[in-house]
Amino acid sequence: MDIIYFTGGAREKALIALIEEGINVVALVCPKPNKNNSRFVPSILIALENGIPVITVEKDNIFEKIQNIKFDILLSCGFSYIINSDVINLAKVLAVNVHPTLLPKYRGYRSGPFIIINGEKKSGVTIHELTPEMDKGDIFIQNEFSLTPFDTTKSLIRKSQELEKVLIIDFFKKLQSGNLDRIKQIEADSTTFNEIRRPKDSLINPQKSLLELYDFIRSCDPLDYPAYFYIDDEKVCIKLWRPDNKEIDTI
After folding, report:
1. CB within 8 A of 218, min separation 6: which ones?
2. Rounded distance, CA 240 to CA 149, Å?
3. Is the dihedral of CA 229, 230, 236, 242 positive or negative?
4. Tens of pLDDT along the chain (251 residues)?
């Protein structure tokens, strides 16, 4: 079975899992790396080391770049652009997307911080049919992991990526054995988060108690967009930490 792997994020663990499983990846498709987004460069290097062609695309030329490639499965994992039906239809068997939440909750590009803000006790990964409507396709396989009061957006990402590589292999095993289920998403249960998180979004209301602010503060990246407030027009940033915790970027 030949697959084409679309990525645009730090998803090299999933690619390594595919290679180690012996699944034939005919090409890696990604945007051109730039100073704002180079997280997928490790995936490019791994592909090249394993003789997998790398195709860089822009939003409007994806079909043109891959129309002559033959593949059974289109696997999208952290890809940067919405994939239209012309591209989806190039897959002989199926086009699927790996989404790092428990769909239909938390659809969209920017759902991670809101999982933390909302104090969720669990999250997970979903592999679903790829459609032109983002994150709305039928669910094929889904699994969850626990979240603690000390998880942050970065530890959430790490947990998601560890589960992604396992779930992707499980998906292909089920597909090959003919045991793949298909479950419709329940629209009434859906939520969507697409707005890019910016530093100004980390402004807190210092009139609230620390416990009221706790989940919001741990949703803010302590380096890129730390929680903050003002005293005498001076910006004061907040970083949470535990003296006994040795894991990077968690509290």
Report:
1. 116, 150, 151, 152, 240, 251
2. 12
3. negative
4. 899 999 998 899 999 999 999 999 999 999 998 887 888 999 999 999 999 999 999 999 999 999 999 999 999 999 989 999 999 999 999 999 999 999 999 999 889 899 999 999 999 999 999 999 999 999 999 999 999 999 999 999 999 999 999 999 999 999 999 999 999 999 999 999 988 888 899 999 988 999 999 999 999 988 888 999 999 999 999 988 888 886 656 67
CB of 55 closer than 8 Å to CB of 65: yes
Report the candidate in 247, 248, 245, 200 with the shortest Cα–Cα distance to residue 227.
200
Q: Which two tokens stand for residue 37?
A: 């987004």
Q: Which DSSP string corresponds to 134-148? A: TT-SPEEEEEEEE--
- Residues whose CB falls within 8 Å of the CB of residue 41, separated by 6 or more in sequence, listed in order: 33
Handedness of CA 58, 60, 62, 68 (dihedral sign): negative
Coil, strand or helix at 82: coil
CA–CA distance, 153 with 249 (Å, rounded to integer): 9
Structural domain spans, the chain: 2-189, 199-238
Looking at the domain covering 2-189, what would its CATH class be? alpha beta
Residue 86 identity (one-letter amino acid): D
